[in-house]
């Protein structure tokens, strides 16, 4: 009989501890957020333990509380609220546990004094929690956690701006009412600081971007020239491609000028009699030849378009 009585006494404690474990475990999934910016991947793990904060951004009391002008805001980040002390006292607490367990089945509620009584309105549910970046231009600034609750009478929400502060936790000490049933709060916490988990060096940088632009311009030139020659000049088939003869002969021309370039620079080193003036003259001749190669398709295209 004694063992049976002790088991019955320990059963509520076991259930309570099990519920805490479930809420803490679910917090890790809710409070994970990643943000990709360029080649950097920013990771926010709000519920991960820190040396001074073993539960991350979750309040060790089981809830956060802010009171302003007779209105009291209760909330817990990344999970449901747990009250071991100072629970909300409300005539009604629908959607959040009822009057006997008010606050135990939601993530945020607000207490308003009306007609001499305290009325609690649920403004956040764990299932409707969403984490997003606070400032995309500055990912290190922090994140914003938004929770909402929909009911027959109220559609409410709470947005908590969590600012990165590596020195310690501060707040929340302010509460704002943004709409009929929309509230906002701000706090500072080390868990809101981003960590770079991966830095990708893929891509070609500015040179790759320049190359893409050149290719796009070349493609636009080919398409526009082909369309113009086909519809306005009546050229059909493969001949509609602008400067077809030049593009067909380009590999052969490139080979010839590459060989010429090799011979030009090999001559002075072999003879040992070359001078700076000779090299300069040869370079000018090569540049003049290359300029004539580049200029010929442009002049040919100009004449073919307007003749």
UniProtKB/TrEMBL annotation:
<feature type="signal peptide">
    <location>
        <begin position="1"/>
        <end position="27"/>
    </location>
</feature>
<dbReference type="Pfam" id="PF09451">
    <property type="entry name" value="ATG27"/>
</dbReference>
<feature type="transmembrane region" description="Helical">
    <location>
        <begin position="203"/>
        <end position="224"/>
    </location>
</feature>
<keyword id="KW-0472">Membrane</keyword>
<protein>
    <recommendedName>
        <fullName>Autophagy-related protein 27</fullName>
    </recommendedName>
</protein>
<keyword id="KW-1133">Transmembrane helix</keyword>
<keyword id="KW-0732">Signal</keyword>
<keyword id="KW-0812">Transmembrane</keyword>
<dbReference type="InterPro" id="IPR018939">
    <property type="entry name" value="Autophagy-rel_prot_27"/>
</dbReference>
